[in-house]
Amino acid sequence: MATVTVLGATGFIGSAVLRTLARQEIHLRAVARKPAEVPPGPAQVEVVTADLTDRDALANAVEGSDAVVYLLLGDGGWRAAEEGSAERVNVGVMADLLELLGDDVVLVYGGAASQVGVPQREPLNGTEPDRPETAYDRQKLRAERLLLRESRVRGVSLRLPTVFGESTPGGGHDRGVVSAMVNRALDGQPLTMWHDGTVRRDLVHVDDIAVAFAAALEHADALAGRHWLLGAGRGDALGDVFRLISGITSEHTGAPPVEVTSVQAPSHAPVTDFRSVTIDSSAFRAVTGWRPEIPLGEGIHRTVAALARKARP
């Protein structure tokens, strides 16, 4: 029975990947700083609690793995990367891991489409030169390059789009734009944009992303050695998305729809926040057969319902 280890198994994406992989008859090792909740399914689930910045703890966590899914993220996300406090998690753990893994282990890494920097064209298809604009993206790119130049392992990097959705039981919460705006709408606050609303993002539900990781593990031989873009390919205008959130939240709560409005951008806003992103994931789809299944409206309905339940006293 194959042993698949998920690093970051209690995170927003990691917990969704864990739940998806639990449907397979494998030995599934869930590793995080806090105990992961065991999802239903035929998988034999082993829960490991560890601080993976400790090299010995990392070695124990991945010992005997046939495949590893790497979904670690330093506390504080991109802001922590700017301050330098997340580099050990975002880069250092990858360097340690590559030294510790045995030959021919599959390692699937959760990268970011934003590693490319300011998009020079639409759609992105993975052939663009990387010119990351933020410390976070520079760290993600460094970790990816460490992975892809290590020939002993079968490394696959999945560059993720804007992922959204409801959290799984025991998992981390989405800290992205969709959930932030849903929470504002549930509080009756206006939904604010730093632009005129025509800026686009490629939005994919977290459950579809989890299926992509399972597909990458299944097709690792064909995917190994390069990065692959994931996306829906729609390029949803954020003004339309925010109005959809406002309307769906109103349907759910019975309150009037909140206002969607433009405001002055703060001085710290990165230039990438004002550029549209649409992703062509046809290369990954051709190899794996994966494609997003959850429509945007359904995904937002599910997100609103989940966050409304959480907000109830």
Cα-atom Rg, whole angstroms? 19 Å
What is the overall shape?
globular
- What would you give as the CATH superfamily of the domain at 3-168 and 202-232 and 279-293? NAD(P)-binding Rossmann-like Domain
CATH domain class name of the domain at 3-168 and 202-232 and 279-293: Alpha Beta
State the assembly state of the protein chains: single chain
**Proportion of residues in β-strands:** 15-25%
CATH architecture of the domain at 3-168 and 202-232 and 279-293: 3-Layer(aba) Sandwich
Straight-line distance between termini: 44 Å
Spatial arrangement of strands, main beta sheet: 3-2-1-4-5-6-11
Q: Round the mean pLDDT to the nearest integer and report it.
A: 94
Structural class category: alpha/beta
Tell me the major beta sheet: 7 strands, parallel
H/I helix tally? 11
**Helix content percent band:** 25-40%
The number of distinct β-strands equals 13
Order of helices and strands: EHEEHEHHEHEEHEEEHHEEHEHH
CATH topology of the domain at 3-168 and 202-232 and 279-293: Rossmann fold
Low-confidence stretches: 76-83
Sum this structure up briefly.
With 313 residues, the protein is α/β, with parallel strands linked by helices. It contains eleven helices and 13 strands.
Protein architecture, described:
The protein is α/β, with parallel strands linked by helices. It has a domain at 3-168 and 202-232 and 279-293: NAD(P)-binding Rossmann-like Domain (Rossmann fold), CATH 3.40.50.720. Helices cover 38% and strands 18% of the residues. The chain contains eleven helices and 13 strands. It has helices at 12-21, 55-62, 77-83, 87-100, 135-148, 177-186, 206-218, 220-223, 238-253, 282-288, 296-311; strands at 3-7, 27-32, 44-49, 67-70, 106-112, 154-160, 162-164, 191-193, 200-201, 203-205, 226-229, 236-237, 260-262. It has a seven-stranded parallel beta sheet with strand order 3-2-1-4-5-6-11, with helices on both faces. Helix 5 (135-148) links the parallel strand 5 and strand 6. The longest helix has 16 residues, at 238-253. The model is unreliable at 76-83 (pLDDT under 50). This is UDP-glucose 4-epimerase.
